[in-house]
Amino acid sequence: MTRSTKTTAAASLLLTLLAGCATAGRDTAIGAGVGGAAGAGVGALLGGKKGALIGLGVGALAGGSVGLYLDKQRKELERVAEVKKTENGLLVQMKNDILFDTGSDALKAEGIVELNKMADILAKYSDDRVKIQGHTDAVGDTKSNQSLSERRAKAVKTVLLSRGVQDKQIEVYGLGESKPVADNASPAGRAKNRRVELHIDVPNPS
User: What pTM was estimated for this model as a whole?
Assistant: First the structure.
């Protein structure tokens, strides 16, 4: 491959990288790290180590644009819920004592108000994939807890759909008591384990 051909190929690939990363949802990368790695590979076509370093910088900017998309969303969601940035996207956590009475899958009025606020934000981000996970403490029968967690996750999904989040964006999981975040031996620990989590990432669009 001649120098001219390499340059043309590299330019074409780099434009594809920029277009893909600049539009949220066109790549599963959420930060500059992945974009930088891809850019380095493209840059290498331009000529060894120097070209790779150039590509690394440009690719990092492109990959970082998806991260900016999630950062913008995180700042909005933080106004209504507890939000953490994860390796794959965002984690939104809501305590069950806000959403449900003990042993019930019927949303409380207060919980619906909070979910409505969150759903209105999520509805603006149509490239999101939202995985809703229901969790319980270890009190009671394991099978019953599994079923309860599923029903609660579905109840949250119903609210999101009613506010404009698309059904194709949402996946629902009931995990029962299988994923505790605290010790079930104490009331405080059990309260932390009773929760609904929303895991948000930006997959390739269908």
Answer: 0.71
